[in-house]
Amino acid sequence: MAEVLGTFDQRVLDGTLQTVYTVAAGHTFVAKTIALCNVSTTTIPTVSIYFVVGGGTAGNTNVVVKDKAVITTETIFLNTDMYLQAGYTIQVRASAASVLNCQVSGVDMS
Question: DSSP characters for 20-38?
Fold first, then answer.
């Protein structure tokens, strides 16, 4: 089994529900850390994070962080050891565009 440890997505959130990682067919992904940095000095957005089974939709049954306020210039870290099977997605929704940077890191196993 091959393992790749690293950062698998880096982006500025756009205020909509975004898929930031999809586990490839035949793979397992261990979500280790999701980092969220508010780069604004005036806006305090909220963020929700979902671990969604393949073919599913983000909602209350798969939310792991719901409407967490990220204070101006603050960085928060969600440290997990969640094992996600092929087809799972990590989805993130920010309440404001262009103020939250998101990074997903973990271990991809094939």
Answer: EEEPPTT-EEEEEEEEEEE
DSSP 21-86: EEPPTT-EEEEEEEEEEE--SS---EEEEEEE-TT---STTTEEEEEEE--TT-EEEEEEEEEEET
Label residue 93 by pLDDT band (50, 70, 90).
Answer: very high
Contact 30, 109 (CB under 8 A): yes
Model confidence, pTM: 0.94
Looking at residue 94, which CATH number applies to its domain? Answer: 2.60.120.340
Looking up tokens 């909509």 gives: 16
| Overall domain count for the chain | 1
Question: 6, 1, 78, 67: which is closest to 36 by C-alpha?
Answer: 78
pLDDT in tens, 21-62: 999 999 999 999 999 999 999 999 999 999 999 999 999 999
The range of the structural domain enclosing residue 10 comes to: 3-109
